[in-house]
Design a protein that fits this description.
The protein has helices at about 20-35, 45-55, 100-115, 140-145, 155-160, and strands at about 10-15, 60-65, 70-80, 85-90, 120-125, 165-170, 180-185. It is α+β, with helices and mostly antiparallel strands.
Length: about 190
């Protein structure tokens, strides 16, 4: 958290009952992911479906509210064994750079750990050619490609590494030909 992080925020569970907040988060998702993942959420309806899909009873869904506005949102679900998957995370453009993403990540990690989670996994895609993993055949020496990964400053990979996640793999062509999904993981409890 940076020094500029206000202390007047509220973390709460997001539910289907709060339709206005669901719509607000859907708009934030659409605005935030249009440039980074253009095929994932092409419309407001697709963004709303994604939000609603993350509100099932077995999901964790947390919204960070500043004043009367949703500043960010995070979701997670049990994947298998002691593994949880973090998906998605979004912070509205006006609220970035204040530590809200870190707050949301820590909160969802703590909730997953309290439910027996030992590992949190996530993926971040590269549909825009902003990492050294895009625009190449990753079926040829994927481990070598991971060993020399680089990325543009604005790609989310830098954020994920800053909050303690480690690159553990890559799925070639996940978002289209030569557009990979980068897999990351983090241990939720000390050894």
């Amino acid at each position: 958290m940076t020094e500029s992080t206000p202390s007047n925020f509220v973390l709460a569970s997001l539910t289907l009952a709060d339709r206005e907040r669901v719509d607000e988060v859907a708009r934030m998702m659409l605005e935030s992911f249009t440039a980074l993942a253009p095929t994932w959420l092409p419309t407001l309806d697709a963004a709303r479906e994604s939000v609603v899909g993350c509100l099932e009873p077995d999901m964790l869904s947390r919204v960070l509210v500043v004043g009367d506005r949703a500043a960010g949102w995070v979701g997670a679900r049990h994947d298998y064994g002691s593994v949880w998957e973090l998906h998605p995370l979004v912070v509205g453009e006006a609220f970035r750079g204040h530590g809200y993403g870190r707050i949301l990540v820590r909160d969802i990690e703590a909730l997953a750990a309290a439910r027996g989670g030992l590992t949190m996994v996530l993926s971040t895609s590269d549909e825009t050619g902003s990492t050294s993993l895009s625009n190449r055949d990753l079926f040829v020496d994927p481990l070598g490609a991971l060993g020399t990964i680089s990325f543009a400053e604005w790609h989310p990979l830098g954020f994920w590494q800053a909050v303690g996640y480690t690159v553990v793999g890559v799925v070639p062509d996940a978002e289209g030909l030569d557009k990979p999904s980068i897999l990351l993981a983090k241990r939720l409890r000390a050894r």
